[in-house]
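anyone seen this seq b4? input:
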Amino acid sequence: MAYTPLRINTVKPNRELTFDLFIFFKEQYIIYANKGGEIEQEKFSKLKKQKIAKFYIDEEDEMNYQQFLDALLMETMNSETATTEEKVNLVEGACGTAVERMQTDPGSETSYKMTENAAKSLRQCILQNPDALKEIFGKEVQEGDHIIKHSLNVSALATKLADKMGQKEEQLDQMAIAGLLHDIGVMQMDEQVRELFKKDKKDLTPENRLAYGAHVKDCISVLNDKPYVDKATMDLITNHEEVKSGQGPNKKTKLSESECILSLVNIYDKMCITTDLTPKEVIKEILIEELGNFELDLLNKFKVVLKEEGLLDI
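predicted toks r here
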């Protein structure tokens, strides 16, 4: 029997389960809750205190879980009583589960559709809840989750900036999906190259940059020509490391507004992750060093978004 991991935040206590739920304990999968049952709030809280981040389901229950999650996302995102924290926790769990599955099985249409649904819920969450971005960026990254946390940060912030630039809903959804998926190619690389993700780009040698830049091609190789991936989203993923000076791995100099937004936010969040600089120091450095790589209007609006969302105070 094969098991699929899912984030604990995507399962709500006191709600009927449409699938069997397992935990991984002492090198074996143990059933924790049966289909048709519920998880009591007390037991759920205890699991979270024990820092158990994942449940597992039998892969035959994939569709049941997806329908369960879709319904829960719709209900929670449209709820007038759910708090911003509750909405963020759920959408983070959905995005994390989707990205993790795409990392392990990037050619799966089911995983991609899950990512689409998670991205739309993320877009809705951050645009309808004023404190959502600050809630997302204020959380510490869990050990081993650096790429997933970065993907969530980039997706959320790039979507917010794209909205500030007046982009349409379809473009915002494409941005949210591309933000979640832009670095799945990193997980296809060997461990030594993956470690370059955690390094400041100033510390990378030319050989390092070349090796790390290959993650773009690795991502393209598994998503390209898939009928369920639209061209606009694919272009964003393909060019997320590009800048107008042509110093990206694809050496592209003509970029769309959306491509510039994703690239800029990617640079910002990577600097926040890989340096000891504060967010204020990061944006100050970007405004100086990246001036030739992005339009001044975009840089200024990005700073405004960071300030309005309270992200410079984290």
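Residues 83-313 form a domain with the Hypothetical protein af1432 fold (CATH 1.10.3210.10). The two ends are 44 Å apart (CA to CA). kinda curious what u guys think
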